[in-house]
């Protein structure tokens, strides 16, 4: 028997160190070739580390959250034959890390026959929480629970930090009503438990980026109300006529088109600001970042060259990227390079929000929910579909007047949708 040592690989882009985000194995586990051993986090993405050999795990080289240098020992595996460990190799510490808190996000390597990861184990689908305790869950899971009539506080989460996943909703439903009365009494029981959650991996990257953005940029927000009745009628008409053959359109591709057209007159919004070099770079290409919520946090896949895409092309790309991000399949290239960002919470969009800039960009356009309400049109009170755009800008680069004019231009395009397509 010999020892095969796997070192932290060089992931490229001049990266000298990466964060160990999650182990998928422990000491004593038997692994097969191409099985995913660990996830590591770079500045841009999560990367899977597969096993190149069959064998037994005998040592782990770090703990989740630890920053490791490229080339350092990641894991040691006992294998048949001589292995690759030489006497001069650095010693490996046989230690078992704490339980991981973060799931994989972006799969860089795609093994041909990766062993499937175990499904989340739910220790009983029901759990009692305080009435005012807000369980962790993505907007999509919250919407799913709302549609199913499930109270999230009664569902035990099997995701990172107890996050409720779609699988947990299914487990809750599968349990049926046999013990539906059990959590009712438990819901009023006193609780004094505490849980400490290590901020690592994707959650730490999100925290760092949000903190950096608010500290470096001079944020200011501008909110405008838009009558989207006409464009919603156009969307419904196009879906009825072409939905079967071309796919259904949401409002997002129309917003992307409005951004593209408005940016022709406001190129200063489609820019990146290097505040270290004091250089503003305005770009002709419109690469729209579409903020997407996943089970592991907020991700921003990029619709590249939106200026060259039709409505259906944009819609298909938005859908493809969103699915890739939510399923942890988006690549580093798909998660970087945006020039302006569009963010929306969908049905949970609220009335007003204050989105945080996606540095080094200088503008982000936030979409709030559509509501029907009485509006005065030509002296008459009528019911119209209204929506707010809550947008933020970097005041170091963008003047308030320009920001207002930019959003007003988007408003005009959306309220008169024919102008989106007039060249």
From TrEMBL:
Q: What Pfam families does the annotation carry?
A: 2-oxoacid_dh (PF00198), Biotin_lipoyl (PF00364), E3_binding (PF02817)
Membrane-spanning residues: none
Gene Ontology CC: cytoplasm
| Record's signal peptide | none
Q: Which UniProt keywords apply?
A: Acyltransferase, Lipoyl, Transferase
- Any idea where the Peripheral subunit-binding (PSBD) domain is? 136-173
Q: Which domain of life is it from?
A: Bacteria
Listed EC numbers: 2.3.1.-
Q: Which SUPFAM superfamilies match?
A: CoA-dependent acyltransferases, Peripheral subunit-binding domain of 2-oxo acid dehydrogenase complex, Single hybrid motif
The cofactors named for this UniProt entry are: (R)-lipoate
According to the UniProt record, what class of enzyme is this? transferase
Recall the GO molecular function terms of this protein's record.
acetyltransferase activity; lipoic acid binding
* CDD domains hit by this protein: lipoyl_domain (cd06849)
The UniProt record lists the Lipoyl-binding domain at 3-78
Q: How does the record describe its quaternary structure?
A: Forms a 24-polypeptide structural core with octahedral symmetry.
Looking up PANTHER family in the UniProt record yields: DIHYDROLIPOAMIDE ACETYLTRANSFERASE COMPONENT OF PYRUVATE DEHYDROGENASE COMPLEX (PTHR43178), LIPOAMIDE ACYLTRANSFERASE COMPONENT OF BRANCHED-CHAIN ALPHA-KETO ACID DEHYDROGENASE COMPLEX, MITOCHONDRIAL (PTHR43178:SF5)
Q: What is this protein called?
A: Dihydrolipoamide acetyltransferase component of pyruvate dehydrogenase complex
What is the originating organism of this protein? Answer: Pseudomonas moraviensis
Taxonomy, top ranks, is: Bacteria, Pseudomonadati, Pseudomonadota, Gammaproteobacteria, Pseudomonadales
